[in-house]
Amino acid sequence: xxxxxxxxxxxxxxxxxxxxxxxxxxxxxxxxxxxxxxxxxxxxxxxxxxxxxxxxxxxxxxxxxxxxxxxxxxxxxxxxxxxxxxxxxxxxxxxxxxxxxxxxxxxxxxxxxxxxxxxxxxxxxxxxxxxxxxxxxxxxxxxxxxxxxxxxxxxxxxxxxxxxxxxxxxxxxxxxxxxxxxxxxxxxxxxxxxxxxxxxxxxxxxxxxxxxxxxxxxxxxxxxxxxxxxxxxxxxxxxxxxxxxxxxxxxxxxxxxxxxxxxxxxxxxxxxxxxxxxxxxxxxxxxxxxxxxxxxxxxxxxxxxxxxxxxxxxxxxxxxxxxxxxxxxxxxxxxxxxxxxxxxxxxxxxxxxxxxxxxxxxxxxxxxxxxxxxxxxxxxxxxxxxxxxxxxxxxxxxxxxxxxxxxxxxxxxxxxxxxxxxxxxxxxxxxxxxxxxxxxxxxxxxxxxxxxxxxxxxxxxxxxxxxxxxxxxxxxxxx
Length: 479
Description:
By secondary structure, the chain is α+β, with helices and mostly antiparallel strands. The chain has 16 helices and 16 strands. Strands 2-6-7-10-1-11-12-13-14 form a nine-stranded mixed sheet. A hairpin with a 4-residue loop joins strand 13 and strand 14. The longest helix is centred in the middle third of the chain and has 20 residues. It is elongated and about 95 Å long. The termini are far apart. The model has no long low-confidence stretch (mean pLDDT about 90).
């Protein structure tokens, strides 16, 4: 444990889920042949002019809304001037002085306490091209050049690595559910930089800040922060002076590595972008951008709680958006949501994972799912039955009644019929009843077997067990 107060801030770059790039008509895609999604604007040809993609604005508006940010109604873009191989124009178009969003927050819960991680600003900018290093050669792929980004900058209010991890998990969940980004960190569509500094007491000024760049996963963000705290603590404990620097996280070493020392502040010579007019947003435009916002995680949690779904299942179903979206199609029906979520997270998820398909790839229509849940709820079908026929349900157009008939499934669920059979079996097997009264539990299994034999396997086992135990206990009490 560190002897110092930790102060952490993050900068998260998120690629927006738009069809085309921010300033050109090139497709915004991933995994295509290098330099196949480009045009002269992306390549930075002299004399080309950028044209702002309106959907980028709409997506950024939605991001501001879900992150509780104020939305700036009048803004402009700026040029951030620097020379680097992945930046062929020698400048990046960004928002330095008029970010679209400011003063927001994301609420997390740590150790049972809620805390708001404050967001300083959200600004829109373009991505650079991707560098691939091959020995002494660097290759450039301009497919990523001009991909729209938002950069989400927190205030230095994160107090430890756990809070940072929880913040990023919540941020990823919100942005993914709001259709702002696919947030695939392994593909680079969500990238995090962390700033870490230490001080002895809260009254002391903030310590020397060191930045860790482009950390590739949320778990590595936590580890990188912990390693940086450990490094800085040792330097301070040894009475040495910390130097402001930029580091990167080495996934193989599981540690941070020095990239460069920041001897002076970079001078990017920001100035307003002359080729893009000021952007002025109206209330009507903001409202229109928010119309397409899907149901967010917190609302889903509340709706599921109202339908008696367990907290554990709620967390699991929200972690799997395709299943959550499918479940939401039944919010206005009367099906048992507890049974529905158990089914989705259990046998159906097992099938989907085994066959590497999504629920939309199956033949499970809404009407079949309602019928399936109702049959489970009223015990017309048992859990064992589901395992026997689920593949057929998901792979064929047949209705469930037709499948049950073909498989010879006919469960007796009439309580009066089952009670009659149970009483008959008890009367015919007094020795087993006596064994049960003597504490021999195997007697119950024998009696269950006789009941299933009597009903030719068509009785609902759960109902039979409940009725049998009730009859045996009533018999015991009447002695």
